[in-house]
Amino acid sequence: MFQGLRTVLYTAENLSEAVAWYRSVLGEEPYFNEPYYAGFNVGGYELGLVPDGATGAGGQVAYWGVPDAKAAFARLLALGATSHEAVHDVGGGIRLGTVLDPFANVLGVIQNPHFQLPA
Question: Which PROSITE patterns does the record match to this protein (predicted)?
């Protein structure tokens, strides 16, 4: 079901400060930078920053690539996970959602038709 790791999201109360810090850490500009999301391409994977949600320890979510986010989400629920954030479109045909596994960990699934593994 999982195709591999795609995206890790980190939250920050001040998105512009987080973008500046990660720009310094990574030595590159974000490929996408809007008030609601900033994305860096790190070795073909997404490091995303969002200005909402929990910050600090536990304020990050790893998203696992799947061919169909809605089907993967339903399967996880059937296997005992509980809904955390319903699957929704975030633009560009990208759909994502999160569940809580039976151990209270946040587990994300992402369907991203634009993602290509590096050659």
Answer: VOC
Structure tokens at 98: 């999160």
Please check whether residue 118 lies inside any domain of the structure.
no
Q: Which residues pair with 33 in a beta bridge?
A: 38
Q: Is residue 64 part of a domain?
A: yes
- In a structure prediction context, what are the per-residue pLDDT tens digits for the chain, which is 119 residues long? 788 888 998 888 889 999 998 999 889 999 999 999 999 998 888 889 888 766 666 778 889 999 999 999 999 999 999 999 999 999 889 999 999 888 787 889 999 998 877 66
Collapsing DSSP to helix, strand or coil, 76 comes out as: helix
Contacts of 69 (CB under 8 A, 6+ apart): 87, 95, 96, 97, 109, 110, 111
Total domains, the chain: 1
Q: Which amino acid type is present at position 26? A: L
Which H or E run includes 115?
A: none
Provide the domain limits for residue 89: 4-111
